[in-house]
Every structure is written in C-alpha cells, then in structure tokens.
Amino acid sequence: MYEKGNAIGITFKDVAGQEGAKQEVQEIVDFLKNPNKYTDLGGKIPKGALLVGPPGTGKTLLAKAVAGEAGVPFFSMSGSDFVEMFVGVGASRVRDLFRQAKEKAPSIIFIDEIDAVGRARSKNPSMGGNDERENTLNALLTEMDGFGTNSGVIILAATNRVDMLDSALLRAGRFDREIHVDLPDLNERKAIFLVHLKPVKVDKSVDVDLLARQTPGFSGADIANVCNEAALIAARHDKKSVSKQDFLDAVDRIVGGLEKKTKVMTAEEKRSIALHEAGHATISWFCQYANPLIKVTIVPRGQALGAAWYLPEERQITTKEQMLDEMCSLMGGRAAEELFTGHISSGAMNDLERATKSAYGMIAYLGMSDKLPNICYYNNQEYSFQRPYSDTTARMIDEEVLKMVNEQYTRAKNILVEHKEGHNALAELLIQKEVIMAEDVEKIFGKRPWLSRSQEIMEDEQPKIDDKLKELPEVQAAIKAHEQAQQEDNSSESTENNDTDVQNDENSEETNNK
C-alpha cells in the first residue's frame, strides 16, 4: 500500500503517447481531487476501470502515474496474490483487501494481471473447474458490486487477455470503463522516444523522426529497450555520445538478433543467399503496394543467414491487392533461387510460412477467395474441438491457398525474368559489400515509380506545417526582415546602375566634343 504517491516518483508527465487512455485515467484522479465539479452535475465516480492492451504498452505505468498523482491511499496487488492452494484463502484475502480500502476511503485498488483470478467460470461440467479460483472470483464480484455499499473505493485493473475474463466481471457497475491501451502510432512513438532519450547522451546525427519510422509495431517497453541497447553499443565502442548508427544497430539487434560475423560460408552458399535476398529486394521494388525497402544484408544475424529490411506501412485498412503484393515479395527469394541457381533450398522456410498464413487468413477469415467469397470462418472459442466448416470446405480452402500462393510465385518469377540484369547486378554488389542500402538499389533500377504511404502523408502534411510556421510571430518578423533586406539590395543595385549610366553619358559627351 502507498499512503503518499510521491514514494513512487512517477507522474503523468512520464507517460508519453496514449493520450486517450491517459485522459480517462486522469479524470479519475481529478474526480478524487475535485469531486464537486462532477457531483454538482449529477455525475458519479466510476466504480472501476479496466486497462486492456498488448504487453509492454504501459498499462502498469499508467497505474503507477495514478498512484503518483492521486494523493489518496493506493493498494497495489497482482492477480496471482489471490490464488492459493489452501481452501478459502483467496476469498479471504479479497475481503481483507476491500475492508482495508474502505477504512482508508477514498482509496484506489490496482490489480495487475487480473486474468489470473478473473478467468471465465467453466460452463461445461465434464471439463471440470477450479473451485478455489471460482470462489475467489465470486468474492471479488460481490465486493466490487454486491449487496453491501462500496463507496469511495475505485478499482483499477490491467490485463492483456480480456477475452478470457468472466462476463460478470466486465459489466457496468464493476468495471464501468474499459480503456484500450494500444500499440503506439508514429507520433506516439516519437513522444515515447523523447521521454526515453532524456538520460541518454546523443549527438546531432540522431533523428527522432527516423527512429519513430524505423520502429513500427514497437511497444513502449521495446522503445525503452532500443534506447538502452543503443547506449550499450556506444559504450562498447568507447564513444563519448550515442550516434544515429548506434540506434539503427540497436533496432537490428532487437528485431533480427545478434550479428554472427564468425559464421563460415562457402562462396556458393554466399552467392545463393545473395541471389535470394536480391530477389526479395527486386520484387518489392517493382510491386506497387510492397513495403518500401531500407537495406539488404547477407550478414548472418540470429537464425537468419540474410535479410531484406523494410519500412512496414502502418495501414488502417488493407486491400486484397496490397496483401497479394506483400505475398509476391515474400516469394521472390525462392523464385530467384530456382531461376538463377537451378535448385531450391531450406532458406525460404520463414517466407513460405508467412505467405501460407497470409493466404489462409485472406481465404478463411477475410472472404477474399473466388470460390469462397464474402465468408468468414473465424472462431473465437479457444477450447473448441470443432471447426466451423465442413471437410469439403476445408479441402476447398486448402486448394484456394495453394492456388493463391503459387500464382504469386509465378508472378514473382516473371518479374525477375523481366529485370534479370538488374537482379544479377544487385546480387553481385551484395556479395562485394554485404550490406547495401535503398540508394544502391535505386542506382541499379532507377527511382521507384510509387510513393510509399508514409511519404504521401508527409507530403500532404508539409504544406499545413509550412502554413502554421508562417503564422508564428518570430517567423513573420524574419520574413519581413528578409523582404526589407532584399528591397534595400535592389535599391542599392538600381542606384549603382544609375551612376554607371550617368558616367557613360559623360564619357560619350566628351568623345563627341573631341
């Protein structure tokens, strides 16, 4: 229990991004500090708020910020604290917790990983159940909103498995608010980077915008890890400050694993890997909706012998054409191996797995098949032993998946045959340099004919940013000063021209007199 939040030392200023979630949680703290603002209008304080989201997105951090700013007693518990092998102990602990919280009301109870105790009760008697855990859950339900009054105690809870929770726990009156804490988008990642870069000594080469674009799908915990890893890499090389390259190496280290420079390969193996990775790069360069390429490498890293690094597009909705282009670029490695070495290898296993999963999702869940259009066979029941479709449909799904993947494989081979010379030049350059950037690919194939989604958004936003900048008083003053300086320059130039004209006239008069 924390009587004073200052002991934790975390406030809402330390929580970057997640503005929507932060606002809802801040409202609870504001209610505790200034209740009249809400009660005068007939409002009541929320009984509870459930923070839901993937791991590492800052659910517990938000709860710590509440504890740091609330100024009321804060009880912090884990869901597993209530789970005990002895009969009745879990339920007794729940009652004790709420009794202490009522004595110190107004107060806040935070239960982290509530799915340990709040898992849905079994409906099937033959499956058996955990009586002790269900009794603990029943005690929690009655304490949160039962026959007795429970005023002045607010319950916060966090989980990343909301689908497993009991429906009685999620109803209004127990958890009035379900606050979604999602993975951060581009601007939120930038704000999180700025928070974690405060203690790090960085040099001028570090571009926070680039780092935010390079880390799609990263959670707040991942970004903190990137900053720490970059500092460790810089220290390993005895640097005085952390540079842009250290951050890029840290991202590579976290995504791809440790670089293995000592792995011995024959010239033939190296050429095969170079052709494979150049195949990915070539296909993605000539597919409109494929992710923009950053670099291609044949340096072994983690389990991979080589990799093509992309800047994934963070799309809100994805069309069938976009998914097919992604699938085609995945098949580019295997297609290049077969075309230019005459054999296929085990190196394409990860590509084939991802392409097959993508095709299965498109056909079984998204209804993007010719034979099974507009049908979704998604089944949300975790312990279901029955498929939501017949054996005939299962065979049809398999046939459609096979057809879709192989169509994209044939398409990839056709693109590679069309750009055979460029692909071979790319593979040779890769064997020589081991790491090539998008600029090297552009020299071989020419500029990519399509803009990426992020580039389009940035170009659309730039005029708005420029207009906003022009409205600033400092910028307006600078523009006026520049215009005045130009006018002065022009007037001085015109005076000089007049002087030269007068002199020319005098000279001409003298010659005439002579």
Rg, Å, rounded = 32 Å
Fraction of residues in β-strands: 5-15%
Low-confidence stretches: none
| Largest sheet: spatial strand order | 2-3-4-1-5
Question: Termini separation (Å)?
Answer: 109 Å
Q: Level of helix content?
A: 55-70%
Order of helices and strands: HHEHEHEHHEHEHHHHHEEHHHHEHHH
Question: What does it look like?
Answer:
This protein has about 525 residues and is α/β, with parallel strands linked by helices. Helix content is about 55%, strand content about 10%. It has a five-stranded parallel β-sheet with strand order 2-3-4-1-5. The chain has a three-stranded antiparallel β-sheet with strand order 7-6-8. About 30% of the residues are buried.
Short summary:
The protein is an alpha/beta fold and about 525 residues long. It has helices spanning about 20-35, 35-40, 60-70, 90-105, 115-120, 130-145, 165-170, 185-195, 210-215, 220-235, 245-255, 265-285, 320-340, 350-365, 390-420, 420-435, 440-445, 455-470, 475-514, and strands at about 50, 75-80, 105-110, 155-160, 175-180, 295, 305-310, 435.
